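Please, structure for the following, as tokens.
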Amino acid sequence: MRADEKKPFLSPLDFMRIARSASIAVMRSARGAAPSLPRALELEDRTLGEAGLTAFIPAVHSMLLDLLNLGRDDLQAPEPSDSFASWAESMARAFGAKRPPSLAFTDRDALGAPRRTVHTAAMLAEEADSASFLFSGRRRVLAAVPLIHSFGFVFGLLIPRRLRIPSADVPPSPALSGRPLQKGDMAVLFPQLLKLLSIAPPPDAALLCSSSPPLETQYFRTARSAGFLSLAEIYGTSLTGALGWRKSGEPYELFGHFVRHGEKSILRPSTGTTLTSSRLQWRRERHFSRTADQDGGK
């Protein structure tokens, strides 16, 4: 499904969800436990002070500047008396004014060092459009992953937005207790939660999970035995974005915005970026296996 090009890349509500995700991450880091924050729509008219963020504003603001790839002169830090709605509108204006607008996701390289990778809005939209077929038939998306992570951002926020599917954030609890699963739901989660999941799903509920390294084959069988329609695994990193997908222990299939390039590389034609790994094993023209973590790109 093609997005309406007249629509902004992100809405003020999207920025509220992103701000909430960043706030939870900062407060969890400081307190050692996940805080309880209302859902994004319930925060709209609340001030940051009322939400208990006064002491955390500098850290949250810094995290959002990094994520939205903004300079300190691009966006002023909010005051405790500012509402979440006005804060989101400020972020929307600052992000929309950048050319090109982009986000920067942080992960760690093979040696454990922090790595920051910038993805333009156009690159993220291409990725979302390429992977949107996995959401066919879904009526609602429940994101149990942080939206400040590349996987959470694309699959928990951007794709549902572009497909006009309702999307909500839930705590990463084994029973997905934030909102009960309904028929037609898709839960977006990390492998750590998948291994702990304890819930009897309604008919037609599906799971979408990230991986790096590859997910153990047993979890595909376990998901189906538990009553889920399917488990789709997205292979990639914050550096590469989503490279491939599978719904069983078979090889991954490349997403449409990538092509095979030689024996050990994958090419993204729209950017000219080549991703190379000695552990890449081609099975067919667009199917591959990996034996260990992503080595990186060039």
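The chain has a mean pLDDT of 92. The chain has eight helices and 14 strands.
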